[in-house]
Please model this.
Amino acid sequence: MRLAQAGLAAGLLALAACAPIHASPPTAPVAAGARITVSATPVPLNAQDLGQNQLGDFHYVGGLVLTSADTARLHGLSDMEISADGKLLAISDEGDLLSARLISDANGRPTGLDQATLTVLTGPDGKPLQGKLEADAEGMTLLPNGDLLVSFERNNRILLYPAKGGAPRIAASPTASFPDNGGMEALAATPAAGPGVYVTAGEDSGETWTCKLSGGCVQGATIAKPAEFGVVAARPLPGGRIAWLLRAWDPVRGSRNTLMIHDASGEIARMEMTRPLTVDNYEGLSAIPAKDGSVRFYLLSDDNFQSSQRTLLLAFDWKPAR
Model:
């Protein structure tokens, strides 16, 4: 998995995060800067049981609250990619791109972000995306050649940002009609199916599509989920498996998330997150396979530019039973 390098960072500029149903839109966005310092504060899996580090087959490695005093735009992060060497790329639903390096300790626990920059996503005309309608970036994925795909809600489309820089171009996307705030939040390259193949899903409907850069999109299976949950992220796994991240919120139970892992036979693993666990509006997902067959998952929350929410980055390890 390759993160965009200098050329891509120069060609990408913006942060646009998807607000769930309960969130109000942010006011008066403040322009993103370039290099920023990110502060990281450790968080437990369960503040009421500090010794808890297991959720079924998933082992909690560690987590962080991320903030920055350098900008008002380190918020609304809606998806991310993290490479095995710690390179992190994330988008926000206000049209920004965060590039950083994840720092971990000797035991693999995340401890902070370094070399962080915020830039702005551009449109095919080369100009920064303007307004929520155009800049509501929700899903992202890296193709094997380093090109970045970003899916957008409201004005539903997928843009391809070349790894070598330059303005993005329109990529193939489903011809389906999506609700105003329920479009393509999940987006994942599937290299095993081809270098230009990727999958996406409708947040509200759970419908999925397989798309090719060289062609269109073909509808696949619909993800079985409770109606109140939306499909917000996806990542391919070895052996033809795929991970799906679901999100729900209501005023009584607050935020809830489900991480499901599917293979050709159906669901093979599941992790549920709800209170009193450290929950928030998790929308971003990254998956890093290890040589021993295990997978390191990272979950990233979109704080909706709200002071009552947090930008959280949590790490979990999972090893398939077969």
User: Anything to note?
Assistant: The CA atoms of residues 201 and 208 lie 4 Å apart. The domain at 6-20+38-318 is CATH 2.120.10 (Neuraminidase).
